[in-house]
Amino acid sequence: MKKIVLLIFLFITFWSYGQKKVLSAQLTSQSISIDGKLDEVAWENAAIASNFIMFEPDNGKPIPENRRTEVKVLYNNDAIYIGAMMYDDEPNKILKEISQRDNFGTADLFGVFINGFNDGQQNFEFFVSAADVQGDCIMTDANGEDYSWDAVWTSKAVLTDKGWVVEIKIPYAALRFSGENKQTWGINFFRDLKRERKKYTWNLIDTKIGTFTQQNGDLEGIENIKPPTRLFFMPYASYYLNAGDGQKTFATLKGGMDIKYGINDAFTLDAILVPDFGQTKYDDQILNLGPFEQQFNENRAFFTEGTDLFNKGNMFYSRRIGGRPSIEPDLNDNEKIIDEVQNVNLINALKVSGRTKNGLGIGILNAVTEKTYATIKDTISDQSRRVIVEPLTNYNVLVLDQRFRKNSSVTLINTNVIRNGHFRDANVTGLAWDLNTKANTYNLSGNVKYSMINTEEDKNGVYATLGFAETSGNYRYSVGSDFVSKDFDPNDLGINFFTNYYNFYGNANYRILNPTKLFNRFRINYETYAEFNKESGKVQALDIDINLNLTTVKNNYFGMGFTFHPAITHDYYEPRAENRYVNIPRKLESWASLSTNYNKKFAIDLNPSITFTDEEGRLAYAFDIGPRYRFNDKLLLNYSFSFSRKNNNKGYIDKFDDDNDANTPKTIVFANRNVITYSNTLGGKYAINSTMTINLAVRQYWSFAENKQMLELQQNGTLTPYDLYTKNKNSSFYSWNTDLSYSWWFAPGSQLSVLYRNNASNFERVIDKDFKNNITGLLNNDALKHIFSISVKYFIDYNAVKNKVRNRV
User: Fold this and answer.
1) Which of 124, 348, 434, 778 has the fewest Cβ atoms surrounding its Cβ within 10 A?
2) 552-575 pLDDT tens trace
3) Measuring CA to CA, how many Å separate 656 from each of 290, 580, 716?
4) In whole angstroms, what is the distance from residue 507 CA to residue 725 CA?
5) Which residues partner with 557 through β-bridges?
6) Four-residue CA torsion sign, 98, 103, 105, 109
């Protein structure tokens, strides 16, 4: 009888936790002070959200009584207020590292997820750490959490003898919701108990289901509020002091403004007038020996914030805008470029984005870059001339994304680049789909893209992909195929390197959904991939991959994997010539990864790898080691050393015509070479308080390729000795970057930034293997460039200004 009662109790408990929860917001006319005390009378009468359930690692387990969490919600005509009490019977053990905004470090966390349309599509997420640090992001199932989005809101976290308290005020201008008199919002609350690595939510998020945003609870009771005018101005002023060898120290003063305007309750216009990206993070440049350009991360806030719509279909690479010029100038004999342009200046940019109540998302992005010249000098006559390397250029992106059934979408995307004058124009159109069953158990996804390039010789190309996957449960799988035509080219506003192929791929994996006695997380994957040249049918890639990833009960991560390449494949890209390929030998790649628990003051990351081939002496190995130490809640240092070596690597060097006969194949020269790379990085953070931090980032990089023997590429893809080639094509690239910055969020949305940066780099054909010389050679006044800058950005809310003026009158 007792067993039956227990089973009934467990069933009722599980059933009650599995239902969508409902919370009622309390209207208040009382002034709420955001001080973390929750001592206003209005809080006493508000309904309580409690009975949190574990999200990770033991999904579905109720929170223990001694860690219970209670949340209340108030609202008035201006904002919504959240008050949360995180109980903890060991308050002295609460982790509270102070960090930068959006980077919580090792600290307990409280969050609130809000969907004003309650459509299961997109959450606005607001977090506060136990160290009183804010973070916010936009969350979609398709793109995950986008922390580049920043809202303006206020909060306060206070530690007590019972745990810790958070009080939050979110103005309606930071949210999106309909204009209806009676509101029902999707809402969820989140707690991260960092020292136990356990995450809880108020409404259950079932990890067996492949969705996150559709598992909110409901917030009721908000009535008769109106979306405010969403108009924000963010003027800025920046001062730069530049110094370097061979030039006088000079100063520049910049000013401009960002504007955000809510066109209606769903759509927002963002514009930048006279942009300034001088304080963005430096790019980690490398010695690039491959056939393709190096791809860089986007660090400019305008192009990262709220761009989930524009990333649909993988057609938009924002670094094209204001990146390197698209035209390589033709040089006559004895000419050289003396004023090479690294980046084209952006004149202005704007974007409009949002989603209607019927699920139609619309995104429009436009940017204009200026006409740009390079200076070329004749070394004999000493005459100079200027040539256009980038005309006045207009970039456009249009996205129409229709969502339905809360978990599926069909998207139309178009990117367009128009260059003034008789220069290359480009247009790419794509149709993408992401379809899920009602229960979120199966997914059908894919896209079709068509590119049109307008030059003297127009070319059009097609890219198509289709994939099917099971997305729920312990066992999951996926299969898919791609087709890419030879002339597909989205690279004026996107990025794609591989064309003229078709492939087939599949994946099967097993994961645990709840912890065991040994593991908090465990996942094993099997993947296979086969790629074929579209015209010849030759195998370009054939991979079989097995990998394992797990987290122990002590929250140490371990991973390992093996990738088999069981057949000789054919690389059509490395030769840099049409219809030519080089044979790639059979090989076995293996790797491992270890990351110890970051909750400890000392932690370490270790990543070794090794690759064997069936070609004698051809071996590659690498390792990264990264210790980190948290001295206290304010000071953190982390260091990383990376080393890689490729013995008897075969790579392209040069090509030329044998004679004037156009039918004679080109001579393509490869080299048998050793490629060695060293990299040291040092990062540091000192937090003065939750709004003021000092940050350090240092990177030293050196990579060289030493050619041992010249080789000629044969028509069958093999390589034979070629002693007739005697040019020095060794490569050595070394660089140094230092950023020391101070950041102070002196008011909501307003920031003062001070930055000192020095950097230097050099490329040589002569290799100096003295490691010390390659570092000290950059750390002198002849090599280093220095920049000191101060930037102030101030946030102005139209509503606040209007209210102040009204009160004075």
Assistant:
1) 348
2) 999 999 999 999 999 999 999 999
3) 18, 14, 18
4) 45
5) 551, 595
6) positive
Q: What is the DSSP string of 402-425?
A: EEETTTEEEEEEEEEEEESSSS-E
Contact between 428 and 490 (Cβ < 8 Å): yes
Q: Is this structure's pTM higher than 0.85?
A: yes
Amino acid identity at 761: S
User: How far is Cα 488 from Cα 503, in angstroms, rounded to an integer?
Assistant: 16
| Chain segment 346-395, per-residue pLDDT in tens | 999 999 998 887 889 899 999 999 999 988 888 888 888 888 999 999 99
CA distance 9 to 15: 10
CB 650 within 8 A of CB 719: yes
Polymer length of the chain: 809
- Which residue matches tokens 């979120």? 440
> Using an 8 Å Cβ cutoff, are 205 and 470 in contact?
no
* Distance from C-alpha of 141 to C-alpha of 214, rounded to nearest angstrom: 9
Type of residue at 745: W
Q: 431-489 pLDDT, tens per residue?
A: 999 999 988 899 999 999 999 998 877 899 999 999 999 999 999 999 999 999 999 99
Span 671-714, pLDDT tens digits = 999 999 999 999 999 999 999 999 999 999 999 999 999 999 99
Residue identified by tokens 């998207």 is: 411
Strands 79-87, 163-171: pairing is antiparallel
Give the bridge partners for 462, in sequence order.
450
What the block records as the tokens of 121 is: 């599509």
Query: Which one-letter amino acid corresponds to residue 107?
Result: A
What is d(CA 523, CA 81) in angstroms, rounded to the nearest whole number? 40
The pair of three-digit structure tokens given for residue 772, joined into one six-digit string: 């010390």
Nearest C-alpha neighbor of 505 from the set 539, 480, 475: 480
Query: Exposure pattern of 600-611 as b/e (b: 16+ CB <10 Å)?
Result: eeebebebebeb
**Average pLDDT for 7-21:** 52
- In degrees, rounded to 5, the angle at the alpha carbon of residue 502 between the alpha carbons of residues 501 and 506 is 140
Q: Quote the CA–CA distance of 24 and 73 in Å, as a whole number.
A: 8
The reported pLDDT for the residue numbered 766 is 92
pLDDT bracket for residue 287 (50, 70, 90): very high
Q: Which H, E and C letters describe 70-139, residue by residue?
A: EEEEEECCCEEEEEEEEECCCHHHCCECCCCCCCCCCECEEEEEEEECCCCCCEEEEEEECCCCEEEEEE
Tokens, residue 672 = 């048998």
Contacts of 770 (CB under 8 A, 6+ apart): none
The pLDDT assigned to 263 comes to 87
